[in-house]
Structures are given as structure tokens and as C-alpha cells.
Amino acid sequence: MLNRRTFTSVAALGATAIAAPFVYAQAKLEKTKVSIAVGGKAAFYYLPLTISEQLGYFKAEGLDVEISDFAGGSRALQAVVGGSADVCSGAFEHTINLQAKSQYFQCFVLQGRAPQIAMGVSTKNMPTYKTIADLKGKKIGVSAPGSSTNMVANLVLSRGGIKATDVSYIGVGVAAGALTALRAGQIDAISNTDPVMTMLEQKGDVKIISDTRTLKGTQEVFGGPMPAACLYASSEFIQKNPNTCQALANAIVHGLKWLQTAGPGDIIKTVPETYLLGDRALYLASFDKVREAIAVDGLVPAEGPKTALAAIGSFDNTVKPEKIDVDKLYTNDFAKRAKDKFKA
Question: Which domain holds residue 59?
């Protein structure tokens, strides 16, 4: 409850909120109705978003959030760039790809500190697989072409001397459709998130050849910390709606704080039943595998953006690392205030 003195202070500060960042948390929201686009909401990659939504943390911040779920991150990105969504819950590296096209978007709260993406080959279609070179001419399933699952596959292939044009990428989503595509032999390999990859792995459907579901695996693949899922928006949106962005960051960090102590039973009770893909035990096994990859406090690690830029620049000729302003890819201002608020 606000007492009269506090309310008077808030009212007086409201007019200066834009000029004085430190009062964001107390100031009036510029927008209470916010649309968020996400690509594959059922994946653990976006678990903090789901937790914050299901536990009412967005509402607690005064927000009426509408979340639109797309087949993959690249589709969600298109929605935000096209103006049909305000904010994207997507991969950090999209901010790099956008800046390379002179479109300035900024991450303002981190959900994942590792990509949580594994790549595996079908034991049915490729029983004699030995090296990455064997994937030339094959069909590779990704959540959606252009998404982070596609980016990781490109990176893995490039290290084996294979170009993206040497394979066929097929969008299979991040849920039951991905499982079906692999098991039915429609694709020869898959780059995807959990719980899909753990389910395929435990049933012997795939042989894992690259894994960023752990911090150690991420270090091995990328050579450093790799920021993953985040909330990002156009720099213009963030400048015009700083209090709204602060409220969004607060809700996500609140969710991250809850996840730090949540047990398996808590997760099962909170996520929609359809996310379990019909197998609770395997869903929880997947959660155990990716738990450390979930961000703790919403902050982007200092070396993370450089790691992401180096990785993308190594295989994407449209991205010139020397022309990317790393400081414009993200801001930790909102997450720092949220971390202080929730002691995350």
C-alpha cells in the first residue's frame, strides 16, 4: 500500500521519470498492454517467460501481457520488426543480425545464460555417422529457418567444413512435431531445444554431436559465455517506454528468482500440461539437464555479447564484427534494478 507521503513523492517524480532512470520502478507505466512475440514457448529456452506469466508476475507489475507463440524465433522476430508485437522473447543473437541490417534492437533482460540447444543425428537414418562431413546433402530439422537452432547448426557445420547451403533446413517446431519428424525419418539430423532433445536422446532416436545445454558444453562450443533467450525490443520502444520495460524486466527477474529454488513438482504444477509432451518423467529429466543454463538475475555477462558476435561472424558473411557496436546490443540497467528489488 502507498501512504500519502509516498504517493505524493511518486506523483512528483512521474514527470521526470524519463530523465531520471532510477525512479522507473515507481513511475507510471507508459503502456500497460504489451504484446510479446515468442518462437516456441513450450521449450525450456523460454521457461522464465512462462513462469512469470503463469504465476501472475506480469500482472503484479501492472502489465496486461499478450503472448503470441510462433513456430520459431525468426518468426517472432519478424512480428516485432513488422510492428505487430512490441517486444520479442527471443535469442540474443538476433540483436546482432538486426544491427547488421541497420536495425537497432536491444536486449533488456536475460532469460538464459546458455543456448540450451543440442544437435543430434538420427540413429535410424544415419546409423553409420562418423563425422560432421557426413551431413553434407542431408535434411536437418530446426525450430524454424533463421532461428537460434539454425544458427547453432550453422556453427557446428562450419567447423566441419560444411556450408549452410550444403544441407536442407526444415522447420519442425519445438514440440511434438519435432519428435514426429525425426522418428518418421523425415529429417536426418536435428538441432533443437529441450525437452525435445532429451526425449529423443533417452529413447535412442538420436546421437548427440553438439551440446550447449550446460555451461561447460557452451564454453566448448562457443569459447565463452553465450547469452541466449532474452526480452529485446527496438531501441526506440525502450526509449519511449522505460517504465514499461522496467516492469517487464521485474516480472522476468521475479520468475528467475522463483526458479532458483523451485523443485520438479513446482515446475510440473506451473507449466501447461501440453508442455510435458505426454511424459512427465522425461520432462523433468530434461529440466535437470538445462537448469544451470537458466539465467539467475537477468544480467547479460560482460563477455557474452563478444562471444555471440565472434560465433556469428565466423559463418555469416552478412555480419561484419568490426561494424557492430556491442554496447548497443543490450542494456543491464533494467535487470540491475530488478535484481535489487527481488534480491535475485
Answer: 30-344
